[in-house]
Specification:
The chain is mostly helical. The protein has 5 helices and 3 strands. Helix 1 runs parallel beside helix 4 (89-112).
Length: 168
């Protein structure tokens, strides 16, 4: 579980540092847009009061606390799952990414009342209207990793798989 904690901490720090630089140092919240490598990479300030793509983004205080509670519930679920049935190293890293990203977005909601999204990528004549952040990337990669990376097949010769079933 140390791997999970270190990956989560590193992810959280990178996420919060990137947001602090973009919002407070580069003043993207005032400038609203900075073209970095147009059209491939641009900084576009977007305060996300909801979930992905602004869904449930009413901006109400109740919605904020519900989304914080859901994120913390997911973090708790992943921690318990990883402790109960630890996967191999790639799965632990994936779990750390998901946890660190989720906690990064929770801190945004506590500090700003919304998640600070700023990365915008477009390509091939398709203009992407959405923005995201480092935490969103980590959450996506972590969830994908937990789904796609297999757990341990046989723990310590017990004959049991990661799911608690007898190995064939």
């Amino acid at each position: 579980m140390r791997i999970v904690a270190w990956v989560a901490l590193l992810t959280f720090i990178i996420d919060q540092l990137s947001k602090w630089i973009v919002v407070h140092v580069m003043a993207l919240d005032v400038r609203h847009t900075i073209d970095v490598l147009p059209p491939l990479l641009n900084f576009r300030m977007a305060w996300n009061y909801g979930i992905n793509f602004g869904l449930l983004g009413s901006g109400s205080e109740a919605t904020k606390w519900i989304l914080i509670s859901v994120a913390l519930g997911i973090v708790l679920f992943v921690v318990v799952w990883l402790r109960r049935d630890p996967p191999g190293l790639p799965g632990l890293v994936a779990g750390g990414l998901l946890i660190g990203g989720a906690l990064g977005n929770v801190v945004d909601r506590l500090l700003y009342g919304a998640v600070a999204d700023f990365l915008n990528m477009s390509c091939c004549g398709i203009a992407n209207p959405f923005a995201f952040n480092v935490a969103d990337i980590a959450i996506f990669a972590g969830a994908l990793g937990l789904v796609l990376l297999p757990g341990r097949r046989d723990r310590a010769g017990t004959g049991k798989t990661g799911a608690g079933k007898k190995a064939p």
